[in-house]
Amino acid sequence: MAYNCRVSASEVVLSAEGLAKRYGDREVVSDVSFALHRGEVFGFLGPNGAGKTTTIRMLVGLVKPSRGRVVIDGHDLGTDFEAAMRRVGCIVETPDLYKFLTGRENLEHFARMVGDGAAGRIDTLAALVHMDGRLDGLVRTYSLGMRQRVGIAQALLSDPAVLILDEPTNGLDPAGIREMRELVRRLAGEHGLAVFVSSHLLSEVEKMVDRIAIVHRGRTLAAGTLAELTDGGKRGLEDLFLELTGGETV
Amino acid sequence: MRVMAGLIENEALKILRRKRFRIVLIVLAAILSLVVFAQDRQRRNQRRDNPTLDWRAGVEKRATELERRMNERRVPENFKRWMRYESGRLRYHLSKNLNPNEITGPIFTRAFAGVGSVLLIPLLVAVFGADLVSSEFAEGTITLLLTRPVSRWKVLLSKVVAMGLFTTLTLLAAFFLAWGISGVAFGWSGWGAPILTGFRLGGASPAAGFDLSGVRMVALWQDTFAAWGLAWFSALAVGSITLLLSVVFRSAAAAMGTMMATLVGGTILSRIASDWDGAKWFFVTNLPLPDYYAGLPTPFEGMTLAFSVWVLFGWALAALAAAFVLFTRRDVTA
Ligand SMILES: Nc1ncnc2c1ncn2[C@@H]1O[C@H](COP(=O)(O)OP(=O)(O)OP(=O)(O)O)[C@@H](O)[C@H]1O
Ligand SMILES: [Mg+2]
Question: B-chain residues within 8 Å CB-CB of A54?
Answer without folding.
Answer: 333
